[in-house]
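Colleagues,

Please find the record for the six-part complex below.
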Amino acid sequence: MELVPGNSLLTATPEEGRRLAVTLARKTIGFMQPDASVREVLRPAYANDADSLTAAGQVVATEFQTIAAANDYWRG
Amino acid sequence: MELVPGNSLLTATPEEGRRLAVTLARKTIGFMQPDASVREVLRPAYANDADSLTAAGQVVATEFQTIAAANDYWRG
Amino acid sequence: MELVPGNSLLTATPEEGRRLAVTLARKTIGFMQPDASVREVLRPAYANDADSLTAAGQVVATEFQTIAAANDYWRG
Amino acid sequence: MELVPGNSLLTATPEEGRRLAVTLARKTIGFMQPDASVREVLRPAYANDADSLTAAGQVVATEFQTIAAANDYWRG
Amino acid sequence: MELVPGNSLLTATPEEGRRLAVTLARKTIGFMQPDASVREVLRPAYANDADSLTAAGQVVATEFQTIAAANDYWRG
Amino acid sequence: MELVPGNSLLTATPEEGRRLAVTLARKTIGFMQPDASVREVLRPAYANDADSLTAAGQVVATEFQTIAAANDYWRG
């Protein structure tokens, strides 16, 4: 199972970087819980709970922090 | 769905940067829960709970950390 | 509603920087829950709960991290 | 109420830096809940709960991260 | 018990770095709870709970932040 | 009570750095709850709970981030 698509943190734009952050977060969940049917069962639990969504947002914010630094904040 | 408005982390001022941080956090919630009606139902749950608001504030603080670094802290 | 008082992260001293960190955290809560009467109702819930206060302290610590870096840690 | 004792993040040693981190965390709790008698009531709640202590430890770790960077990690 | 496999944070690629981040996180859990049978009992509790998986994802994101910085984001 | 063993963040290797991170986290808990008998009572509560272990792992990850930066990631 691939954890870092394209095996790189470098993206052309912040938008791509943000989507990579979401992907890294999701791939890690998939790595820790490889059973897709279990993940499917869990989805409503977090997608319909404000605090669960916020906690997931915190993970994306942390991943994005890393990716943004990797890309020197796309100051280009 | 656009996750990073204007596809840039660069803003003219800290105030703009702070609003971008809130926007990034909110757009990510929207990306993870695309159903606006569900988000509408969830809003009272977090907007009327001290810990939920604090957790959301933690996400904004993390996003702002990234944006502030991107803008070299607007040291101009 | 202003989120960053003075529209700057630069302060003369760490003490001012710390107070700005608390202000940023509080202003964000106010931005997410603009109804002052609701915030008033919520205050006892977090001000009288150890974990709630700790979580709020985590937000201030994260905001201060950003402000301290902005001011090069007041190494002057 | 003083939030940053000595109005400086600079300390002679990591040990002093660590104690400053604990102090910053505690002073912020005191700033958010100025009533010492309430804090006294709350202390057992967090000091006798593993997760509460861990959450408080997370705040200290974040504060220390800032102070360590301020002191260039005492690489002297 | 070894906490950092290979006693290095340097990896050839982001993918290796990401796996090292997961390993660091897991090894620390093992260090704090050395009883493998207990960890086995605990696994379903976190692997079948959305918030638990998210919290574990937050740890991996933080570890990866460190490893990515160590490898200068594999900008090579 | 000593919070930073050896009063230094500098270690020869990542492995030593990781152990120092665990020690810093534990020493802070001990500082906040000095009663060893209470800590003994609390241990099973966190060592047998997946989320508690994860939260403790988050603290270690944050402490390690600081120590790794202090040692320039042992890039030597």
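The helical segments of chain B are 14-32, 36-47, 50-70.

Comments are welcome before we finalize the supplementary table.
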